[in-house]
Design a protein that fits this description.
GO terms for molecular function: integrin binding; metallopeptidase activity; zinc ion binding. Keywords: Glycoprotein, Signal. It comes from Didymosphaeria variabile. By secondary structure, the protein is mostly helical. It has a domain of 183 residues: 3-Layer(aba) Sandwich (Collagenase (Catalytic Domain)). It has a three-stranded mixed beta sheet, with helices on one face. The chain binds 2-acetamido-2-deoxy-beta-D-glucopyranose (4 copies). One 2-acetamido-2-deoxy-beta-D-glucopyranose (NAG) binds next to loops. One 2-acetamido-2-deoxy-beta-D-glucopyranose binds next to loops.
């Protein structure tokens, strides 16, 4: 009796269970429909997002291609800089070298903004609207009060900037080379000046490599928002982790080569609008034709805004 009853119950249970499968399947379909009905709504928050930096129609195909590639390289190094910090945090020696004991959130944030932030209006153009490209040694400039979200790239850039593949080449190293030797870091610098990107918070709190290193030990709260620090960390992390794995090209700072540089950058910072002027001052470029005039050009450019 007991056996029969439990069998009946079991049967009843499965009889209940199997019809139950049908409604459940039916309801699965319903859920799926709900989800797909919702997906236009869930992507709408992001509508109009701009994932690539706009390049103005004043750039011809050749120029646009080079700027686009350079910006792609900027994204490559900032993504890696962010990923390096996400992986190693403040235990990374490279992190400690550039950011001291500062917490990791801020540099991760700046790098992420550039990598993944909306790029609408952050325009690169090639027509020389402010006439600055005519000045010797100018490879580009932020348009400042004339158009705060715009950057002009002058023809000299196509001659002197190097691709990321050349990182650690030409005798360049992080300690002694100029950050604007490479498209990647030059354009990173330019982007950080755009209010939409750097929010007026990323600024020049250090003047050169030596003071970047010093700042990390003394005022690391400024290191995490220093333009040069953000460039140098990104270059060094990429060089060490990717370009020449485990080795990189940190270099050993030699004061002599940069005393001249810091003299010019002191002039630059006193003019408040920093000149990325060192356009082609660094030793790796000394052999270049444009650099014959660059020392003089760099000095004269210092008083002018943001080459
Ligand atoms: C690293 O961060 C932790 C907190 O997450 C902190 O306790 C530690 O002092 C930091 N180390 C350095 C070297 O800044
Ligand atoms: C980091 O170091 C500086 C200077 O050495 C010190 O003043 C500051 O309190 C430290 N900050 C943290 C978060 O440990
Ligand atoms: C803004 O435009 C004026 C007038 O054309 C020009 O003199 C000035 O140098 C420009 N500013 C920048 C930062 O290029
Ligand atoms: C684009 O402009 C550059 C000057 O920046 C010029 O040298 C080049 O020949 C132009 N390219 C084309 C395809 O017109």
């Amino acid at each position: 009796m007991a056996i029969i009853r439990s069998t009946i119950l079991l049967f009843a249970a499965s009889a209940v269970a199997s019809p139950a499968l049908l409604p459940r399947q039916a309801s699965t379909v319903t859920v799926t429909q709900t989800a797909s009905a919702a997906s236009p709504t869930s992507s709408a928050w992001n509508s109009g997002a701009v994932d690539n930096f706009p390049i103005h129609s004043s750039c011809n195909a050749t120029e646009a291609a080079q700027i686009k590639k350079g910006l792609g390289e900027t994204l490559t190094i900032v993504r890696h800089a962010r990923d390096h910090i996400l992986r190693w945090g403040n235990s990374s020696e490279i992190y400690q070298k550039y950011f001291g004991n500062a917490s990791t959130g801020e540099p991760i944030g700046w790098y992420t903004k550039i990598a993944d932030g909306d790029k609408a209006g952050v325009l690169f153009r090639c027509d020389n609207p402010d006439g600055n490209c005519e000045q010797e040694g100018w490879a580009g400039h932020w348009r400042g009060e004339n158009a705060t979200s715009e950057t002009v790239i002058c023809p000299l850039s196509y001659e002197v900037r190097r691709p990321l593949e050349a990182l650690c080449g030409f005798g360049w190293d992080v300690a002694n080379g100029a950050t604007n030797f490479y498209w990647a870091s030059d354009l990173l610098h330019r982007l950080l000046h755009i209010p939409k990107v750097g929010e007026g918070i990323v600024e020049h709190y250090a003047e050169d490599y030596a003071s970047v290193i010093e700042l990390a030990q003394t005022e690391s709260d400024l290191s995490v928002r220093d333009s040069d620090t953000l460039q140098l960390f990104a270059l060094e992390a990429y060089a060490h982790d990717i370009a020449i794995p485990g080795e990189g090209c940190a270099g050993k700072y030699t004061a002599t080569s940069s005393e001249a540089a810091s003299a010019t950058s002191a002039a630059a910072s006193s003019s408040s609008v920093e000149a990325a002027s060192a356009t082609e001052t660094p030793s790796p470029t000394l052999s270049e034709a444009p650099s014959a005039t660059s020392a003089a050009a760099a000095v004269s450019v210092e008083v002018l805004p943001e080459t």
